[in-house]
Write a structure and sequence with these properties.
Blueprint (H helix, E strand, L loop, with lengths): L14 E4 L4 E4 L3 H9 L26 H12 L1 H6 L3 E5 L6 H14 L4 E5 H11 L3 H13 L2 E5 L8 H17 L2 E6 L4 H8 L1 H10 E5 L6 H6 L1
Parallel strand pairs: 3-6, 3-7, 4-5, 5-6
Antiparallel strand pairs: 1-2
The structure holds adenosine-5'-triphosphate (ATP), magnesium ion and zinc ion.
Length: 228
């Protein structure tokens, strides 16, 4: 986030001053500043492949309209959704547009000045594992993952992992669940029992309550690109 005030109200300090009474009060941008500070060093960039996605262009215009409409409705009310801890869960076979749609949601959140962290689950688990020797930075990472306005986890269930790491994932999801903070997830595991076996039933249960499920169907559209 830049140093200036997103609302052009303060001098960039996050505080405003009432000259008459000589008192300081919080600027509207201050909550954002706090959120961004908590999100520091988390991965917040939209990957290059998805940077230019838009609701108005293919491939999004080629995806099942009912699902796109639900995604668009969510994205256009993003502040309200994040304030209520609501999330989306895109599920479907490989190459059906799950990550594309999820990135549109992350983009909307980030354009609205909200803090976002974007990870594939394997990468998130690696980062958690990498910090576990340094107690401080480990706790710090988990705190930041709990505090961001939107946690976008891509490819949930893509990789089997250890019980210890699953416990960490559970604690992040549970922390967000308790604080009513939004998550957006994608998975191509359609069988609930299989997903529970991969990431534990307790984690799946919380995600189910936090998210609206948006099922995608169809074939792998990456193959279209080859035949075109
Ligand atoms: N309905 C569609 N019509 C045309 N192209 C599509 C459609 N859905 C996705 N694509 C294209 O297919 C590719 C894969 O899309 P995306 O990464 O969103 O899929 P995914 O569902 O996340 O796949 P995976 O499960 O492998 O992660 C992209 O190049 C995307 O532009
Ligand atoms: Mg994907
Ligand atoms: Zn301000």
């Amino acid at each position: 986030m830049s140093d200036g005030c997103a609302f052009d109200l303060c001098d960039g300090s996050g505080f405003r001053y009432d000259l008459a009474s000589n008192t300081a009060f919080d600027c509207r941008c201050r909550a954002q500043r706090v959120a961004h500070a908590k999100a520091r060093n988390l991965s917040a960039v939209i990957p290059r492949r998805y940077r230019d996605v838009s609701f108005d262009r293919p491939p999004v215009t080629d995806i099942e309209p009912r699902i796109v409409t639900a995604t668009r409705r969510f994205a256009s009310a993003i502040d309200d959704q994040l304030d209520h801890g609501r999330g989306l869960w895109f599920m479907g076979p490989v190459g059906t547009g799950k990550t594309t749609l999820a990135m549109l949601v992350s983009k909307a959140a980030s354009d609205a000045g909200r803090s976002v962290a974007i990870y594939s689950l394997p990468r998130l688990l690696n980062e958690i594992r990498d910090t576990h020797r340094a107690e401080r930075s480990h706790v710090d990472l988990l705190d930041r993952l709990t505090a961001v306005d939107l946690l976008h986890i891509d490819d949930v269930g893509a990789q089997r992992t250890t019980d210890w790491v699953l416990e960490e994932l559970y604690s992040i999801v549970n922390g967000r669940y308790e604080d009513q903070r939004s998550v957006v997830i994608t998975t191509n595991i359609l069988d609930r029992d299989e997903l529970c076996a991969q990431i534990t039933a307790r984690t799946v249960s919380r995600l189910t309550e936090m998210c609206d499920e948006l099922p995608l169907v169809g074939h792998d559209h990456r193959m279209d690109l080859r035949t075109a």
